[in-house]
Amino acid sequence: MNRLMPSDNLALATRYWTLALLTGVYALSVLDRYLLGILLPQIKLEMTLSDTSLGLLSGTAFAIFYATLGLPIARLADRSSRKTIISCSLLMFSLMTAICGTAKNFVTLFIARMGVGVGEAGTSPSSYSMISDLFEKDQRSTAMTIFFIGGNVGLLAGFVAGGYVAAQYGWREAFLVAGIPGLVLAPLLFLTLREPSRGLSDNLTHSNPSTKSSLTECIRFVWSQASYRHLIMGQGILLVVMNGVVAWLPSFLARSHGMAADSVGLQMGLVLGLGGPIGMLVVGRLADRYTRLDLRWGSWVVAIGCLVLIPGYILVLVAPSGTLAMAAFFIPALMGSFFAGPTAALSQGLTPPHMRTTSGALFLMITNLIGLGLGPLGFGLLSDALTDSLGKESLRYALGLAPLLALWSAYHYLCAGRMLEVGVLRAEGHGQSLT
Length: 435
Known about the structure:
With about 425 residues, this protein is an all-alpha fold. Helices cover about 80% and strands about 0% of the residues.
């Protein structure tokens, strides 16, 4: 394993090449994760499935193993090569995405989606940890935001290319095509990525793989951080909104406004892929800028972003046409994943370096069990419950929960900011005490 020695003069090119590779992995993971959303109408028609079943495919099937396996894989990553774990995970989720295209019924597709979740479980926690080692606290929100912009690139490719392939050739072919890029990127990443020393950016160069703590100790420490708990709730609720809306908006536009899959895919892909990075970069830069003045603003900037989401979702749902609904969707798309970079940076700052991969996995496990496990499924269940009284408009009213959930999330980010400074000092003190 090629590991960098601690140095104050870590090559800029090395830092950003590592960030670029990790961003590419995240882009492919999001592409494979959300491609299903644009394919749901075709799958529903072919397999004659209820919205509840589609919700299980969109969220629960993926979340079961993506969330729960992330923690044991992260424990391994805190003690071994993060590069190797990311490379192997990328190979697996790309292969399983292609296998989704061979599914003949609901059960086999459900199992294949579980396999995608297994593969993706090993990527993000290790990426968080490596980025935190490469970038200092006042650069970390921006670096994390660049990483998460990969998700918007993945959404753009998934919705535009996936919608086109599905419309021209079918939903199975869309899955098969989506699996190919990861099989190419995995060997490139393994051969060229250089892994930084743990704690490098925090000048905690003593923090290395030999510094160990038990899983119980890690969970006890991070859960004792009040800000960490509020960040989990804030992001978990936002993920319910994001995953639910991204999974069901294509179906809503098809049912309520008669829009075709390739048209929806093109418009949603462009709006999410081009608008999302703008909002993410603005929020990430604001978080870094105001964090230098007052650490609490790293969380409060996100709380303000939650409030901006509310009128956007309302306008999407009351728009009289599909064209106007897509125009209104630019507001939530602009703010779609704005929370990801600052939240990841803050949660890592609340954790000692030798616990960061495990902490990231714990954070992702809980937030994704909430967001992926409940988001698509919850909106699908509510839509089915309202079908008898509202017919094809049931999905419109089910999605009406989104603005209320955004308000709830804002409350938790406000609370997280209040206790942030004390939490970061505790984490840094814990890391120093292990010298």
